[in-house]
Amino acid sequence: MRKASVTIKEIARLLEISKSTVSRALRDSSEISEDTKKKVLDLAESLHYAPNPIALSLLKNRTQTIGVIVPEIANRFYSSAIGGVEDIAYSRGYHTMIYQSHESLERELSACRHISLRRVDGLVVAISAHSENIDHFIELQEQGIPVVLFDRVTDALQTHKVRVDDYKGAFEATEHLILQGCERIAHIAGPKQVSVSTNRIEGYREALRKYNIPFRDEWVLHSPITQAGGTERTYQLMALRNRPDAIFGASDRITMGIHWALRQLGYKMPEEIAVIGFCDLAMSSLLDPPISSVTQPAFEMGQQATSLLLDLIESKNTPASYETRVLPSNLVIQKSSLKATVPVN
Predict the structure, then answer these.
(1) What is the distance of C-alpha 317 from the center of its chain?
(2) Helices assigned H by DSSP within 27-60
(3) What's the total number of domains in the chain?
(4) pLDDT (mean) for 227-234
(5) Are strands 292-295 and 246-249 parallel, antiparallel or unpaired?
(6) Locate the HTH lacI-type domain: which residues (predicted)?
């Protein structure tokens, strides 16, 4: 049989004082004498008293819990970001509840309903690929549950945002391919409605413009953020009469699909076709040849988004303005894109 928890009522009975006095003593109230506080705290410690978390949450109007919604935990970028979220949450006395949208608006809506019912104190979220309408996040804000966006953001929601500099990362990746002598550079982008896809296409386009290389619509294909999507789009590109001599992938899974498809088709990388992508470096380094990667500070992104969220939760005032933090990406050159002799990071 489970042992009954010690209560404030029991401490009050043993010390022959009121429950309200015990409660104030445990909260270090200035209304209670130091002698009484010491007696209460000493007895509470000897009895292994622990405050009831439900009662505490009602008293403080907080559950000390935050929600996290990501497209998929199995994605190394998001698992690393979750690590950053938990790192800050734990250090500030909060627990985390993790949800996966699997790129489904319905799952995202379900997660938001659960977050509302569970009285979660706030939410950190990377929006799903199909969430063009973000009313469910606005509703949470109206209920007093602050929301902070990371990675995938939207201007339609007034809140703090943390993202990587996708534009600059894509520009540098494309420029690197151009400097290797590539002239027919294709880009396999993510879903059209996702903010990072738009930013990466613009960075790609600007690099082509800088070096007077024409932008060709048939060389830019959108794909689900999956390995299968990257594989299918690569087959499409390599079936063109004027096929590309380089492919830039917009995510790690898309880029894995590019690499796999080219190996299946028998193309040599980088001699016949160069490859670069937004990739997890540890994973891309294991491939043959290792893939040149635009890496992102996922852990730090999770940390910063959570710090901003907890500041909103613990502040008594609505901020005068919201902040958008843009973190730098890092281009790591490996064998898959080295057609010329350049230093390898």
Answers:
(1) 26
(2) 34-46, 53-60
(3) 3
(4) 96
(5) unpaired
(6) 6-60
The better pLDDT of the pair 163, 30 is held by 163
| Radius of gyration for the alpha carbons in the chain, expressed in angstroms and rounded | 26
From residue 178, how far is each of 138, 213, 228, 338 by CA, in Å? 43, 9, 27, 11
pLDDT higher for 238 or 35?
Answer: 238
Same domain? 289 vs 172: yes
The confidence score (pLDDT) of residue 255 equals 95
- CATH number reported for the structural domain that contains residue 12 in this entry: 1.10.260.40
Instruction: State whether 187 and 289 are in the same domain.
Output: yes
Tell me which residue range forms the domain holding 319. 63-164+298-327
Q: Which of 5, 328, 66 is nearest to 171 (CA)?
A: 328
Query: Which amino acid does the sequence have at 247?
Result: I
Identify the DSSP state of 69.
Answer: E
Looking at the predicted structure, is the pLDDT value of residue 146 above 80? yes
Torsion of CA 132, 315, 73, 83, to 10 degrees: 150
Cite the beta strand spans of 65-164 per DSSP E. 65-70, 95-100, 122-125, 147-150, 161-164
pTM: 0.80
- 150 and 80 assigned to the same domain: yes
Mean pLDDT of 255-260: 96
For residue 30, pLDDT over 50 is answered with yes
**pLDDT at position 2:** 46
